[in-house]
Specification:
The chain has about 650 residues and is α/β, with parallel strands linked by helices. It has 25 helices and 15 strands. Helix 13 runs parallel beside helix 14. The chain is globular. The relative contact order is 0.08.
Length: about 650
């Protein structure tokens, strides 16, 4: 049978050799829409899958792009989608708009980032796809997604399918505005293939599935069928022909860990062992989007993919994408033993927070021996009641136990993920997180402002807020790191908000406003990660601080306190030329009144002007600074 045989009548599934739908489920509306779309958009076998930019375009900074400071995650989800339909007679192309935008910015001095949609137009004209799939996982991509969909709507030449987290929860708006023909809700591989069967008349996926939303007869409708989780077993090697993975490192990074790998000059890739998460944290939507439980991929399949990327693509650094990497910790240990036996010259990291209760001494040693440069631990809160409220599968006791274990592997850079501004969180509970951060003394505290996430139970009542984000085209989306919302890293100053060290005077029973939480974030971050950083103290490892902050500041070229504390770190390390250079750079950046006010408020200006002359003097100056800073929060002790 012709793959796109339009002669098959809608009421004669037998002419296809096998029914696309089961008689138990009525999918006549879906089949009717598919039939009309195929008549209008004649199939040519070409399918374009688009990943939207992962950048806040309104605060785009070319200097950050040239520093490789922007995220450039490969489109692993789209690769899985293509792999799931690889045996079909279709020609796939992946357009990673994030990669293309950063590539053009880095290679073309006169490229205007505001014209990034021209890249899409050129691709559409050259490839002339029949189907276009658009994926958007995070709120920061809403603006880009909406612009892409409006662009496709105006051209009106392709069948358009959307998916990912945003589309899954906002399918009504997208379909009501006729911005796409179908929305695939949740994990997409099975539903995408069922939809392809409906469009092509094939029967690769004989079981009908629910979760495909569309408009038929001016009514929002959903496909009828079973609900089935996606098996975590796709082989992605062939799909790397669709993306230049070996060039991604040239134009961005996954996080500071990937920049630490050979000073950012090592090709990197993302890798995944498990899908889903055992936890059900109320601030997270993984369980709602992917379903309950964890699906494990075979260790052999992961090792084969790693071997391919190392040998064929030159990859030297891997980042684990798993939301629950240590779900089966013994199985992960076995995988690490295989990595060690193969003697690959690689590094790896896990920036998504690991569940602390699964970490033991044997695992840490295997991590070190297999090339781990660093990982994060999901702490979220230092308040026991808040941990229970958000259903975090951990306890303060477990965090303290792990902190002691980490002393055995000091080579590994370890950060703790902390959330500020969880719904109904009081300032006193935030102070518990602040105190635990100092007690655990990890190498870094990755403090972020809690984001309102679709599908997370903590935000079930915020439908209007999410609707406003969509109707504004993403204009009301905020960043989980407030300093990323502006080109110079500044945070908008608002009235009636306590700032700098004044935040420690907030009433402990007060639930701070969103604006106040952003200022709390600024103060906690500066105090914990710089003034009180363990690696700037006499017993610390100053080179760990230097390596991490040098990599992190690529994304914050206008931030003077990063330069200043790096200058102090270099002075401790007896690297005087770098110390003087960065001291002068911080002075230069202080020309901005915003930053001068910040320096004055934290007592940094005097230290900058009376810059210490050697390591001993630096330690004394930092000790004095810590004493002065601690005066502001000692009276708030538990």
């Amino acid at each position: 049978m012709n793959l796109f045989d339009m002669s098959r009548p809608l009421d004669d599934p037998a002419s296809a050799g096998q029914s696309v739908t089961s008689p138990v489920f009525d999918n006549a509306p879906l089949e009717a829409l598919c039939h009309s779309l195929v008549e209008r958009h004649r199939p040519n076998r070409r399918v374009l899958l688009i990943q939207v930019p992962q950048i806040i375009l309104k605060s785009f900074n070319r200097e950050v792009a040239l520093n490789k400071g922007y995220y450039i995650f490969p489109p692993t989800g789209l690769q899985c989608l293509a792999a799931s339909a690889w045996d079909r007679d279709l020609e796939f192309k992946i357009l990673d708009m994030n990669f293309e935008l950063l590539k053009r910015t880095c290679e073309e001095e006169n490229f205007d980032p505001e014209c990034w949609l021209d890249i899409l137009t050129t691709t559409l004209d050259a490839f002339d796809p029949w189907l276009v799939g658009v994926s958007c996982m995070f709120d920061l991509g809403i603006e880009s997604m909406m612009r892409i969909l409006h662009h496709l709507q105006q051209r009106d030449r392709q069948i358009v399918i959307t998916g990912g987290v945003i589309a899954s929860y906002e399918y009504r708006q997208l379909l009501q505005q006729r911005l796409c023909h179908f929305v695939v809700q949740g994990e997409g591989e099975n539903k995408f293939n069922f939809l392809l069967d409906c469009l092509t008349g094939e029967a690769h996926h004989p079981s009908p599935l629910s979760g495909i939303h569309f408009v038929h007869a001016d009514q929002l409708q959903e496909s009828q069928g079973a609900t089935r989780q996606v098996a975590n077993g796709y082989t992605l090697q062939a799909t790397y022909d669709l993306i230049p993975i070996e060039r991604y490192y040239l134009y961005g990074s996954l996080n500071p860990f990937s920049r630490m790998a050979n000073q950012g000059n090592a090709p990197f890739a993302a890798i995944q062992l498990n899908r889903g998460c055992r936890a059900a944290c109320t601030f997270c939507s993984v369980r709602d989007f992917m379903g309950a439980g964890v699906r494990r991929r075979s260790g052999e399949a992961v090792l084969e993919e790693m071997a391919f990327l190392i040998e064929q693509k030159g990859v030297r650094h891997f980042e684990w994408l798993d939301d629950d990497l240590l779900f089966d910790v013994e199985r992960f240990k076995a995988l690490l033993r295989q990595v060690i036996e193969r003697r690959w010259s690689i590094t790896w990291s896990a920036n998504n927070g690991l569940i602390a209760g699964s970490i033991d001494a044997e695992l840490l040693e295997l991590m070190r021996a297999s090339g781990c440069v660093g990982f994060k631990i999901g702490v979220e809160s230092g308040n026991a009641a808040m941990l229970r409220k958000v259903r975090k599968p951990a306890s303060l006791k477990v965090f303290r136990r792990v902190a002691i274990l980490l002393e055995q592997t000091p080579e590994i850079f370890v950060g703790g993920n902390f959330l500020l501004g969880v719904p109904d969180e009081t300032f006193g509970q935030m102070m518990d997180s602040f105190r635990l951060c100092q007690e655990l003394a990890f190498d870094w505290a990755a403090m972020t402002v809690c984001q309102k996430i679709r599908g997370a139970t903590a935000f079930e009542a915020l439908g209007d807020t999410f609707g406003e984000q969509m109707s504004s085209g993403g204009g009301k989306v905020s960043n989980f790191i407030p300093s990323r919302e502006s080109r110079d890293g500044s945070i908008q100053i608002e009235e009636d908000v306590w700032r700098n060290l004044q935040v420690f005077r907030l009433p402990v029973d007060q639930v701070p406003s969103e604006s106040q939480v952003r200022e709390i974030w600024f103060t906690f971050n500066l105090v914990c990660n710089f003034i009180f950083n363990r690696n700037l103290q006499p017993e610390g490892r100053v080179e760990k601080f230097i390596t991490w902050v040098e990599m992190a500041r690529m994304a914050y070229p206008a931030n003077p306190y990063m330069c200043f504390f790096l200058a102090l770190a270099y002075r401790i390390a007896d690297r005087d030329a770098q110390a003087v250079s960065l001291r002068d750079k911080s002075r230069e950046l202080l020309d901005a009144h915003y930053w001068q006010e910040r320096f004055d408020a934290f007592g940094l200006t005097d230290l900058l002007e009376r810059f210490p002359s050697d390591a001993d003097a630096t330690h004394l100056a930092l000790a004095a600074l810590r004493d002065r800073t601690a005066h502001h929060f000692r009276h708030r002790s538990a």
